[in-house]
Amino acid sequence: MENTPIKDFYTVTDEDNIAWLHFDKQGSTTNVLSASVLEELYQALLELEKQKPRGLVILSDKKNGFIAGADVNEFTQLKNQNEALDAIRRGQGVFDRLAALPFSTVALIRGFCLGGGLELALACDYRIALNENDTRLGLPEVRLGIHPGFGGSARITPLIGATQAMDLMLSGRTVTAFSAQRMGLIDYALPERQLEAAARKIILEKVSKHKPTRAQRMSNHKAIRPVLAKVFQTQVAKKANKAHYPAPYSLIDIWKKHGDDERAMLQAEAESVARLLSGNTAQNLIRVFQLQEKMKGLAKLKNFRPTHVHVVGAGLMGGDIAAWCALKGLNVTLQDQSPERIAPALKRAHTLFKRRLKRDRPVQEVMDRLLPDHAGLGIKKADVVIEAIFENADAKRSLYAALEPEMKTDALLATNTSSIPLQELSSILKDPGRLVGLHFFNPVAKMQLVEIVQDTITSEQASQQAIAFAKRIGRLPLPVKSSPGFLVNRVLMPYLLEAIELVSEGVPAILIDEAATDFGMPMGPIELADTVGLDICLHVGNILGEHLGLEVPAKLGMMVDTKKLGRKSGEGFYQYKKGKPVKPKAPRGYQLNDDVSQRMIMRMLNEVVACYREQVVSDPDLIDGGLIFGTGFSPFLGGPMHYIETEGVDVMLRRLQDFERRYGPRFAADTGWKSILDFDQTASVGNG
Ligand code: NAI
Q1: Residue ranges of E strands in 14-62
Q2: What is the pLDDT of residues 77-107, one digit of tens each?
Q3: To test ligand 1's pocket by mutation, which of 379, 418, 450 has the most ligand atoms within 8 angstroms of CB?
Q4: Which residues are catalytic?
Q5: Ligand 1 atom, smallest distance to 338 CA
Q6: What is the pTM of this model?
């Protein structure tokens, strides 16, 4: 680690002999801890040791935050467990050196301070942070299939006690400066004007360091750890299957064994992270992270900065889209046929804002940005107009005819249609190329994906504006061809229909759902169908069935005929109490056929391949990203295309042939499978 030229850090020593170490990674808008950055930091620390300042303040020059974490891309380049272990030990060595400096050290945090960034801050004597909403602290490593490895787990548990520390690491959630101060993770949450003065004062006056409370200390006691570890394991098991997501379990284990011995814990965390990093789950979850970055990176338009959105249709979707846009800082006008139809949307918006923002003032500020506008006064000023009225082509067309002359010439016109081909709608427009689909998913506040629907006449400008807009409101854009069901609904439908077919064959619904969740889906298909509404499933199934030659099981129509519509009617495949399914136990001794989950998954994968062949989405990485963020497809498998590649196309084809023979022609392999036999030549992110 000797003699690395230091370019990403510089030190300014002030008149009190306090050294201010600025981190400003060159050629990057974000500070990340790559191997070379860590070496430079080590070098800088050696120089500071020689310089012997009175104290050290570490701060970032980046506008967006302190440090975003380790450089995730480097994780995919490690050849084996030993190489991973070496890299982690080097990182730990740097932070150990920082922790051992013979003068006071302060991390001064503005904006995000995540993963390795927080581990660095934990190696300092004090942490102070800007008390603004944008300041976010957390250890989200578990989302990448690992846990903190640069000393984070060894340092945070004694600092704030195991209960809160493990909660942060096991959930990967982030906290504000205010919450971080309350739990003792930082010493002070302060306004900008006091931040630097506070860092100086801490050093000059040798303020005493944060001490954990007795309860926090006791939580790491060897008599308590086994009990608490059981509690943590039970909590984690509710969310993550150990076979699919081993990281949280490994973290609990090492803490249980070494939770009161910092040195042993450091060694154990390094070994555990090295092992996890070389496993499939971590590599696939890193791939998911990279896919997400790739989708964000599709937004290229720099000079489109929408500030005002006008939404027409304040129903389920339009109302929630409007609320989301307001929450994300845009001014929103919301139109419907009458003020009475807008009121429920405003009520739902208020509930969302309260849940997200907690305090009254910010809630009021967002409410002030969301204006009911039944007369459509906002159309003239809007940069983006989103139509979310009934799924009726004539109604949509006549609305566009009225909207177009009112709109700014460069404003984007978008529809949330889920099934009408764009061309059928845009033909009414003077400039048909300006219409694009912005297909949101329900519930809008939860579903990260937005399909950007375009056809051959959609202008590049409109597509680019739509992508930029999706990114602006914190959503992941997926460009798709205007074709029945686009990507997500099209791929989901055969999977849902197969599940309903299984019910018709007498397989208990709960076991079908369990088979899917065991595969890694976030919710079983039967519960999903009930949640979406069986009438909607039937409607979409019939539309897609016509185009794709899908057979809709008679059972679905019968249920709709008897008004069993799913959750909204109180009964579907399950009964519902207060909106929650009451799931009957499976009959005792019922033997589930091994094929159940594969029958559903293979139908889904066959449709994925058909979409690839038809270039509904042309890039296999984006198909994976779209289906992970649009359907929750088992993230630990890295996406359906990646899963096909991992299992092997030959294996998949044989499985389909076998199923076709046993269950019928709906399993006939799509012709697209042939073209993905040469998958390896396809450019792909990460390890894919
Ligand atoms: P909805 O029935 O809840 O709301 C439609 C709203 O549009 C109603 O409040 C109605 O009064 C209003 N409206 C109708 N004509 C209007 C006009 N000319 N001017 C102003 N307002 C008018 O419908 P929902 O479920 O919100 O669907 C809206 C659109 O979003 C449809 O195109 C649907 O296909 C699509 N979509 C629906 C999803 C869902 O899960 N419900 C998911 C994704 C897309």
Answers
A1: 18-23, 32-33, 55-60
A2: 988 999 999 999 999 999 999 999 999 999 9
A3: 418
A4: 439
A5: 11
A6: 0.92
